[in-house]
Design a protein that fits this description.
Elements: E1 2-6, H1 12-21, E2 25-29, H2 32-41, E3 43-47, E4 52-54, E5 58-60, E6 69-74, H3 81-87, E7 92-100, H4 107-115, E8 121-126, E9 129-133, E10 136-139, E11 145-150, H5 157-168, E12 172-175, H6 180-200, H7 204-208, H8 211-230, H9 239-249, H10 257-264, H11 274-284, H12 289-298
Parallel strand pairs: 1-2, 1-6, 2-5, 3-10, 6-7, 11-12
Antiparallel strand pairs: 3-4, 8-11, 9-10
Helix pairs in contact: 3-4, 6-8, 6-9, 6-10, 6-12, 8-9, 8-11, 11-12
Length: 307
């Protein structure tokens, strides 16, 4: 089984290392110091699930030299989808499945426009990690799940094979009969969570203790749920309540990647979070004042810290 991991960061490296340890042939696409360290010392994933070291590791910055693979785990930032999607054409054969594992709800459609709908599955990741040094990724929490499925909602052999491969690698692989539902369920939580985290520059426990900020979270959540239903996603009737319960179960110290990116002066995935909800609201004639406010308040930081 040949697998290419496009974006060997805090998400892609963790899944890829688990799969490589289980015996899959995994090629990691990375760049810069991270790539050089992997070539010299291998890839190390440490953290709450234990330690995995892949040495030697197949790592490259030349996608065109990889050859055709069975699966592509597509883990680039949301602003790189079109560029990276075009770059992976040489490794996508007639039977290849491209599985996006980053956040957001429109990556499958964006990739399908480049590679063809039949090459793309929907996917969503449930894992937390970050590069803490070149060649070293730290995993936070013991949870690790990958959910995926066909965009046309049909059963597939390639989906079953990937599910079984995840199980062999020691983490949960969920083959969803309607993959846009779990993708949107994650989006319902992430959009208001990331928005409030970035707005306040404070961890979850700080802002959810404030009634006004908590009300903003709830409003942004309800707007996101409304536009998802307008997109014909079959969200459960109690999706808002379940999302709110999940938020309350999370630890006080929790920080989202967008909150951390803002504090570090990095580019933000804001246009595909609150910005996407506002865009879909305009499309369907649904008011989204809370998400529009979050987007407007943060957009000067979308490309990194303003000069």
């Amino acid at each position: 089984m040949r697998i290419a991991v496009i974006g060997a960061g805090g998400i892609g490296a963790i899944y890829g290392a688990s799969l490589a340890k289980a015996g899959a042939e995994v090629v990691f696409v990375a760049r810069g110091a991270h790539l050089e360290a992997m070539r010299a010392n291998g890839l190390k994933v440490e953290g709450d699930r234990g330690e995995i070291v892949i040495r030697p590791v197949q790592a490259t910055d030349r996608i065109d030299r990889i050859g055709t693979v069975d699966y592509v785990l597509f883990a680039v930032k949301l602003w790189d989808v079109e560029t990276a999607g075009a770059q992976i054409r040489p490794i996508v054969g007639p039977e290849t499945a491209v599985v996006p594992v980053q956040n957001g709800v429109d990556t499958p459609a964006r990739l399908a426009a480049i590679l063809g709908r039949e090459r793309v599955m929907g996917g969503t990741a449930f894992v937390t990690g970050a590069i803490i040094a070149p060649g070293v990724v730290r995993q936070t929490g013991t949870y690790q799940r990958l959910t995926f499925g066909e965009l046309d909602r049909t059963p597939s052999t390639r989906g079953e094979r990937l599910r079984d491969l995840c199980a062999a690698a020691g983490f949960e692989g969920v083959l969803s009969p309607d993959v846009m539902v779990p993708i949107w369920e994650k989006f319902l939580l992430l959009v208001p969570l990331a928005g409030l985290n970035a707005l306040t520059r404070q961890p979850l426990g700080k802002w959810r203790a404030d009634p006004d900020l908590l009300a903003l979270f709830d409003a942004a959540l309800r707007e996101t749920d409304a536009v998802g239903r307008a997109e014909q996603v079959q969200l459960p009737a109690d999706s808002v309540e379940k999302t709110r319960t999940t938020m309350w179960s999370m630890p006080d110290y929790h920080m989202t990647s967008m909150g951390n990116d803002l504090l570090r002066g990095n580019r933000l995935e804001l246009p595909w979070f609150a910005g996407k909800v506002a865009e879909l609201g305009r499309k369907h004639g649904i008011p989204t004042p809370s998400n529009s406010f979050i987007y407007t308040a943060l957009k000067l930081y979308a490309m990194g810290a303003p000069a």
